[in-house]
């Protein structure tokens, strides 16, 4: 589990609890706590408090061979994908182990494939989950915590990987991780971006949780508009999303638990935010299509300005 933050720790804990061996790759005080005291995780339907095997990227490359693992799961921030893949490049090219991305955005798989090859690249995302490190070695999570995944960019374009993923799907289910295996995972990635672009930047800007944002009559309309812009960008990018997809994602986030998005938490803690990874593709493709994503561009600009003021 490369990038064992809140999301990564939740899924790792589920897999370990089900009897699978899992190495958590983390850093800083969180890594030290994992190594010294184990992982403590609280979820309404799942509690985990046990020792774990944890290391950093350098330790992973030094103490393990890539071929020791059946699967590499990347759950780091999207902004870390390129530097992490560069660090891992000489290590991953020695084997054929595939990597599954569980990250926000629609560009991570492209960066992974550039190093590992498309035949080893699986796209995926964590759905209906909120998970955050509340103290080093301690994680709180909520939601159904589903995984949507598939061979990237599709099973038809990458047929060799799909049989392994078909084995992985029931394994996730047995570990208490609901999941859907997609033939066209790019559809799932863009569909999740509809939610991420709809609420993440706005919650980070306002410092309001998802329920507060979607309950506000003005901000609720803004969320919907940003979701529509994301669907428009997806269609320009060649991924078909309909008005029905937008309505389903809007309904989902309006009914979901009141959570702080990862982008909101990052701003509160003074950490880099995934602004370009989430807003960037929407803005880029809408501009290319001659229909600028005006609301997304506005919220992005305000958020960048607010972040700059935070650090003055």
UniProtKB/TrEMBL annotation:
Residues 2-153 form the Ketopantoate reductase N-terminal domain. The keyword Oxidoreductase applies. It is an enzyme of class 1 (oxidoreductase). It catalyses: (R)-pantoate + NADP(+) = 2-dehydropantoate + NADPH + H(+). Pathway: Cofactor biosynthesis; (R)-pantothenate biosynthesis; (R)-pantoate from 3-methyl-2-oxobutanoate: step 2/2. Keywords: NADP, Oxidoreductase, Pantothenate biosynthesis. InterPro entries: 6-PGluconate_DH-like_C_sf, 6PGD_dom2, ApbA, KPA_reductase, KPR-Related, KPR_N, NAD(P)-bd_dom_sf. It comes from the Bacteria. Coiled coil: none annotated. Residues 186-303 form the Ketopantoate reductase C-terminal domain. Its EC number is 1.1.1.169. Pfam families: ApbA (PF02558), ApbA_C (PF08546). The keyword Ion transport does not apply. GO terms for molecular function: 2-dehydropantoate 2-reductase activity. Belongs to the ketopantoate reductase family. Catalyzes the NADPH-dependent reduction of ketopantoate into pantoic acid. This is 2-dehydropantoate 2-reductase. It comes from Shewanella yunxiaonensis. The lineage of its organism: Bacteria, Pseudomonadati, Pseudomonadota, Gammaproteobacteria, Alteromonadales.
């Amino acid at each position: 589990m490369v990038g064992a933050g809140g999301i990564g720790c939740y899924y790792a804990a589920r897999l370990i609890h089900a009897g699978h061996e899992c190495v958590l790759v983390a850093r800083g005080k969180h890594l030290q706590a994992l190594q010294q005291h184990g992982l403590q995780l609280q979820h309404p339907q799942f509690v985990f408090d046990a020792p774990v095997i944890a290391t950093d990227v350098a330790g992973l490359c030094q103490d393990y061979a890539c071929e020791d693992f059946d699967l590499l799961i990347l759950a780091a921030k999207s902004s870390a994908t390129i530097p992490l893949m560069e660090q891992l490049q000489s290590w991953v090219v020695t084997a054929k182990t595939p990597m599954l991305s569980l990250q926000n955005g629609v560009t991570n798989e492209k960066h992974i494939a550039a190093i590992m090859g498309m035949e080893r690249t699986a796209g995926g995302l964590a759905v209906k989950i909120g998970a955050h490190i509340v103290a080093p070695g301690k994680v709180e999570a909520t939601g159904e915590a589903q995984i949507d995944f598939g061979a990237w960019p599709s099973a038809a374009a990458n047929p060799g990987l799909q049989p392994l993923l078909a084995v992985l799907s029931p394994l996730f289910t047995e570990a208490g991780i609901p999941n859907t295996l997609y033939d066209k995972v790019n559809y799932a990635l863009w569909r999740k971006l509809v939610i991420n672009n709809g609420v993440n930047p706005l919650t980070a800007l306002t410092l309001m949780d998802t329920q507060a944002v979607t309950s506000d009559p003005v901000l609720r309309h803004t969320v919907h508009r940003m979701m529509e812009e994301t669907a428009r960008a997806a269609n320009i990018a060649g991924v078909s999303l309909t008005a029905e997809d937008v309505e389903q994602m809007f309904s989902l986030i309006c009914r979901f638990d009141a959570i702080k998005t990862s982008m909101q938490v990052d701003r509160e803690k003074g950490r880099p935010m995934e602004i370009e990874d989430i807003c960037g593709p929407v803005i880029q493709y809408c501009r290319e299509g001659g229909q600028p994503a005006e609301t997304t561009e506005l919220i992005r600009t305000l958020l960048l300005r607010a972040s700059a003021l935070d650090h003055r």
